[in-house]
Amino acid sequence: MLRAGFHPGLFLRNNLLAAYCRGGDMRHARFLFDGMPRRDAVSWNTLIAGYSSQGGSSARLARTAFRDARGGGVRADRFTYAAVLAACGRAGDWRHGRAAHGLAVVSGLAQDAFLTNSVIDMYAKCGMIDDVRLVFDRAEERDEASWNLLLSAYVCMGWPEVAVHVLVWMHRSGVKLDSFALGGILKACSELQGSEDVRRMLHGCVVKVGLDLDMFVGSAMVDMYAKNGGLEEAIKVFDCTPNQNAVVYGAMIAGFARLGNDPCPEIRIEAVRLFSDLLRMGVKLSRFTFKSVLEVCNLTNAVHCGRLIHAHVIFNGFQDDEFIANALINLYSQARSVSDSLRCFQMTPRQDVVTWTSMITAFVHDENFEKALGLFLEFLSVGKEPDQFTLSSVMNACAALSLPATCKQIHCYTVKSGLAQFTVCGNSQISMYRNIGDVEASKKTFELITCLDIFSWSAMILSYAVHGHEGEALVLLEKMKDCGVVINDNALLAVLIACSQQGLAEEGFRHYESMLSDYGCSPNTKHKACVVDLLGRVGKISEAEDFIMGSGSENDPILWHALLRACRIHGDKERGIKTGEKLMELEPFAVTSYVVLYNLYMGAGKISLAMKTRGLMRERGMSKEAGISWAEFGGSIHHFTDGNNSCPHNNAVHARLEELLVSVKQKTERGGTDIWELGFQSRKDGETSLARHGELLAVALGLSSLPSAAPVTIMKNQRISWESHETLKLLSARENRGIIVRDPTHFHRFDQGSCSCRDYW
Fold it and tell me: Residue 266: which pLDDT band, with cuts at 50, 70 and 90?
């Protein structure tokens, strides 16, 4: 038209302006508007509506245009007010929205149902539910849209109970219920826990008004039932919905993903079949559907299937979606393929806090604790704020590394960030302090948690149990029952550990036998191993073996390891050798099994069999893992490898340890050769033999570096030897210091010449 020199009239210019606005090209729309020789109310309404539809900062331009229209003498109509109210609603600007509402009232247009609905929608989007209800109650005209907006406002506010009452009010007022109203209320009730009667009432209402075949309502009903454990009802609704589209399929797949951990994998994997049906139908899949089916693969550990779906994600161009990336990170983490998790993390352009947390958790799950902490530091360096789940994963990493100073730093950061109030952080903090041997800190954390859950109680009972406070653990269990907390398998495991530590065979058996009958918990391998340990601790080795054979887990090596420990402690060499041979069958590629059996043969004088075991180990290319002890002193982590003299403080540490041992030997009559095989014949011999026990060197450095009142905490990757155990008992009495050594199976708290394990480990 410009090239032809055609000068359109106002009607055509308004249509061109509307076309630009609908296309989102507000720059050319404004250029055309400014060049119009004459403008009417339609012109201004179109421009204001165009700015309003853009959202964000364009709301200010919409308000400016509205002000200019009024200043130019244009009489605003209901569409003008509706456009500016929509702009204020999208921007959450209730102050200007309320001013526009006031002008509409003064102009006499607010009585119109159309404008009343715009006002309700504006207040609802600004989260002002009281104003929504006030406008609705005082409205002179209402239509179906008014009721639906009121219903939607309560749904968006997260008040499903009130939304249900509004729906009943609508029905009694003779308002026709449509798919929008019922779909919204069904979505709200999907978050309403323990209201089965309400869900069935709504389902009946849907059938009564004839909307049970509506796809929108059908997908909402599927989602409602699936979120609340109604798997059979969800499937029935899905099967009865005609002309199922991608939305209905997506709702059903998401339903399988949201069913929790109760359904068996065979039932849940049905979601993958539905996904395959969608692929065969050639339907374009949404990001939401991909996310849901990947979550199903994660819950069922269907990694191969997940990889195939990952290929479809790439094919459909959704690999940059952060929600899908989170599901993929978790999937590969479950499969112990942390490299694939890291690749998905690095390929995600928009990494939110959930994405970072998923990757940190993946490192923790793969036992790459240093990398987890490193990624957390990188997360903080890019200016992001962690949530309670991020810090919970970081605490789990610190707990596994058992670094006291780092644990306390994370605790301080949690308090400063205001996230210490969350129960999930408190629970992880209890476990973190348990792993560094600070029971008092665990207790204080437990007492500060405002909303205790089952995991809080279980973590605290376990803290007491593993650190030799068995009486407190059993008292806390009784308190837990008095508070009406449901006992779960984790709490019962902690109680069994406490009973085992204290040698309470009868009470331990009573708790074990009551697991299924009184608490509805099926004993797992860990519970059974505790019973074996309990029987072994009181010397009932034969009964322990019979228990294993009748437990239904006779091929689980954890139970046989517990029996082997009992045989070693009580000197039952023959049964110990049989147990070691059994472990060789169950774990043919575990180095520990070969080492244990070799030591058993040597102890029984069966040299040829011991040499044969060592030869078999050599043939299979296996070697014993180096014993490493580590501790955190003075802000640095110190490592000591058994048999290695290359530590930075080698001479000073050896001299200090020799000095300690000599002083202990002079003050005790328990200086027999069994303990003092470490050797003192010469300085050279002493250094060579002492280097075999890295935990003793670490303790010597700790006693020299830490304040006299501070306990020395050491970690070791292998079971502590008898010689070191006895020596540390004597050192704790000599130095009047608490010494804590954590090995893979036990916490050893040495204090005044005794150990919390009661010499059974």
Answer: low
- Cβ(445)–Cβ(415) under 8 Å? no
Query: What CA–CA distance (Å, rounded) separates 660 from 656?
Result: 6
Among 568, 706, 698, which Cα is nearest to 642's? 698
Beta strand 712-716 pairing with 739-742: parallel
Nearest to 451 by CA among 473, 426, 475: 426
Domains and CATH numbers, the chain: 1-142 (1.25.40.10), 524-624 (1.25.40.10), 628-755 (no CATH)
How far apart, in whole angstroms, are the C-alpha atoms of residue 604 and residue 325?
A: 56
Which residue in 115, 60, 51, 116 sits closest to 93, CA to CA?
60
**How many CB atoms sit inside 10 A of residue 396's CB?**
20
Amino acid present at 512: Y
Contact 596, 560 (CB under 8 A): no
**pLDDT tens-digit readout, 276-313:** 888 888 878 888 889 888 888 888 888 888 899 999 99
Q: In sequence order, what are the residues at sequence separation of 6 or more whose Cβ sits closer than 8 angstroms to the Cβ of residue 426?
A: 420, 445, 446, 448, 449, 456
Closest CA relative to residue 466, chosen from 747, 737, 689: 747
Strand ranges of the sheet holding 628-633, from the earlier edge strand across to the other edge: 636-641, 628-633, 712-716, 739-742, 747-751, 754-755
Closest CA to 331 of 370, 367, 290, 369: 290
Give CA separation, 142 vs 89, 135, 136, in Å.
20, 11, 8
Cα 468 vs. chain centroid, distance in angstroms? 30
Q: Are 346 and 378 in contact (CB under 8 A)?
A: no
Which residues, at least 6 apart from 420, have a Cβ–Cβ distance to it below 8 Å?
411, 414, 426, 429, 448
Q: Given phi > 0 = left and psi -120 to 50 = alpha, else beta, which region is 722? A: alpha
Structure tokens belonging to residue 17: 């302006």
pLDDT at 672 over 50: no
CA 274 vs CA 134, 218, 236, 553: distances in Å: 46, 16, 14, 36
Sign, CA torsion 705/709/710/713 = positive
Going by their DSSP bridges, the two strands 712-716 and 747-751 should be labelled as unpaired
Q: Distances in Å between the alpha carbon of 672 and those of 400, 668, 695? A: 36, 10, 21
pLDDT of res. 528: 92
Higher pLDDT, 161 or 730: 730
The set of residues, in sequence order, having a beta carbon less than 8 Å from that of 15 and lying 6+ positions away, is none
The 10 Å CB-count burial string (b at 16+, else e) for 105-135 is eeeebbebbebbbbbbbbbbbbebbebbbeb
Residue 289 contacts residue 246 (beta carbons within 8 Å): yes
DSSP per-residue codes, 501-559: HHT-HHHHHHHHHHHHHHH-----HHHHHHHHHHHHHTT-HHHHHHHHHTTT-TT-HHH
pTM: 0.72
Q: How far apart are CA 13 and CA 2, in angstroms?
A: 12
CA distance 187 to 254: 13
Tracing tokens 């009181």 back to the chain, one arrives at 538
Residues 6+ apart with CB under 8 A from 164: 185, 188, 189, 198, 202
CA gyration radius, the chain: 35
Alpha-helical runs (H) found in 382-488? 388-401, 404-416, 423-435, 439-448, 454-466, 470-482
Kindly state the helix (H) or strand (E) to which residue 629 belongs, with its residue range.
Answer: strand 628-633
